[in-house]
Amino acid sequence: MMKKVYLTIDDAPSEKMNEKLDFLINSGIPAIWFCTGSNLEKRSEIAIKAIENGFIIGNHSFDHPHFPELSLESCINQISKTDLIIKEIYHRAGIKSYPKYFRFPYGEKKGPKEKTDAIQRYLKNNGYQRPLFEKIDYKYFHKELDDDVDWLWTFDTLDWSINADNPIHGIDCVEKVFGRMDENLPEEGRGLQSDSHEIILIHDHLESSDIFPQIINQFHNKKIQFVYPEEINQYSWTMKSKS
């Protein structure tokens, strides 16, 4: 049985999102694009194209700040401002009902309990949800997630590290990204060799656009199947693959 993974792409839409989008369409690969409101304002048409081809647009704040450094009011504004932009984009794409997903910038969801609880209440009260992720087996993942509705991930490709001034964990080339995929440390975020489902994190960054297809193809080489969580099926969307 093939290992199933959910592909999530952060920081979209970039100037090169269209290239990535065409690659995924031609490959029949579904994905959730976690977009910032500021980027959506600049490139709404490509987000509409993604929706029209069966992809999901998620909320990744307005301009990708560090939430722990913001007031509660500013955090809510980051979410609500982007929420309105996404609603308008779905409307322009002819879609009235769609799943509402949120991911914290940098995955930073920690902070004073009163503040973090208030953010989660706001998300829930405004229709945000997350899949059950029942077939993701990692203890650390469910401990971090608890009853929250934001999206985390289980495997970070660290594609962004290649072009960083100080590469994390020494990831400074695509070959080292591939090496990370081969590691077998399931409870430390490198569990591609396990039977658990995965949430893959990769980015829509201009600088790493040329290696995006290489990384996705490497997942295919590992006999991995890209899928949507079953809850998305209620919207009766299917990939419109050209393959």
From TrEMBL:
Q: Where are the bilayer-spanning segments? A: none
Q: What is this protein called?
A: NodB homology domain-containing protein
* UniProt cross-references to InterPro entries, sorted A to Z: Glyco_hydro/deAcase_b/a-brl (IPR011330), NODB_dom (IPR002509), Polysacc_deacetylase_ArnD (IPR050248)
The record's listing under Gene3D superfamilies reads: Glycoside hydrolase/deacetylase
Q: Which residues form the NodB homology domain?
A: 3-227
Its keywords, alphabetically, are:
Hydrolase, Metal-binding
